[in-house]
């Protein structure tokens, strides 16, 4: 009979421990599921925030590029006009200089192949 009581007591003890293990396992599983849910929500929030910031930076970069392009076009037009003016002034100065040299050298009639002779050919 003592053996029977010992076996029953052992079964009750084992059953209690098994139920306790199942309960602890369920708690751990619930904790893991909750942690996974929080991690998933946080990851989604970070991804959305990053996407929004990247979109803002992209818009700002596009606006900056557009402004830089407009400024470049305007600056290029101004530089081109100034280069044309400088070229025209240089050509005029060269003509005047050649004419002065011809006058100083006493060469009123200029020859076609002379470096100091400039004839306006159109």
- Biggest sheet descriptor: none
pLDDT averaged residue by residue: 75
DSSP E strands, number? 0
β content, as a range?
Answer: under 5%
What is the CA-atom radius of gyration, in angstroms?
A: 47 Å
Global geometry: rod-shaped
The helix/strand series, from N terminus to C terminus, equals H
Structural class: mainly alpha
Report low-confidence residues grouped into runs of 5 or more: none
Q: Roughly how much helix do the residues carry, as a percent range?
A: over 70%
Number of helices: 1
Ends apart, CA distance between termini? 136 Å
Tell me the quaternary state.
single chain
Question: Strands, helices and their partners?
Answer:
Layout: H1 2-105
What does this structure look like?
Helices cover 85% and strands 0% of the residues. It has 122 residues and is mainly alpha-helical.
């Amino acid at each position: 009979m003592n053996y029977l009581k010992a076996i029953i007591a052992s079964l009750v003890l084992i059953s209690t421990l098994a139920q306790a293990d199942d309960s602890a396992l369920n708690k751990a599983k619930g904790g893991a599921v909750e942690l996974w849910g929080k991690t998933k929500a946080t990851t989604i929030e970070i991804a959305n925030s990053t996407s929004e910031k990247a979109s803002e930076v992209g818009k700002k970069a596009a606006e900056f590029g557009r402004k830089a392009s407009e400024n470049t076009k305007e600056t290029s037009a101004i530089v081109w006009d100034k280069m044309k003016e400088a070229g025209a002034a240089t050509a005029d100065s060269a003509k005047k200089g050649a004419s002065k040299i011809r006058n100083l050298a006493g060469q009123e009639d200029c020859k076609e192949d002379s470096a100091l002779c400039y004839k306006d050919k159109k």
